[in-house]
Amino acid sequence: MSAKSVLVLHGPNLNLLGLREPEHYGNATLDSINQALAKKAELANIELETFQSNAEAELVTKIQGLATKKADFVIINPAAFTHTSVAMRDALSAVKVPFIEVHLSNVYAREAFRHHSYFTDIAVGVISGLGAQGYELALDYATKQLNRS
Ligand code: DQA
User: Fold this and answer.
1) What residue's CA is closest to ligand 1, atom 13?
2) What is the pTM of this model?
3) Catalytic status, residue 116
4) What pLDDT digit, counting tens, does each position of 66-120 carry?
5) DSSP β-bridge partners for residue 48
6) What residues are in contact with ligand 1 under a 6 Å CB criterion?
7) Residue 51's beta-bridge partner residues?
8) Catalytic: 25?
9) Catalytic residue among 10, 24, 83, 103
10) Which of 13, 58, 72, 111 is most buried, taking the most CB atoms under 10 A from its CB?
């Protein structure tokens, strides 16, 4: 049986992790988060791809690509696009790949404009406020689900 695959998508400004507002986003860099996920995925025999972009169009195109190069599960931190992007939501609905929405910070404890997400109601689940560990917990969940199917 071929290995299951997980795509991890990071939205705008997450390339600045480590430097950017550590009081909200912690000290881990995006590279260190991706490396920890890669290690975990390897141990679980999951094929992992990570992708970050500051451009909504690139993220939409990457999601659309799942129609042909299917991943079995997506973990996505849409970052600021969480609160604005109907286009990314529609792309996820179109390809019908189950996904978990992750936020490093607890968006519900922050400004009111961060309380609304265009993704939450179509996500399998949401992890918000657990820092970089949120991605690892999401990968644990995806791995368990994929090993069941
Ligand atoms: C974020 C929360 C968003 O509101 C914000 O725009 C981000 C990061 C988080 O991971 O906590 O860029 O998604």
Assistant:
1) 79
2) 0.97
3) no
4) 999 889 999 999 999 999 999 999 999 999 999 999 999 999 999 999 999 999 9
5) 6
6) 13, 77, 79-80, 82, 103-105, 107, 114
7) 9
8) yes
9) 103
10) 72
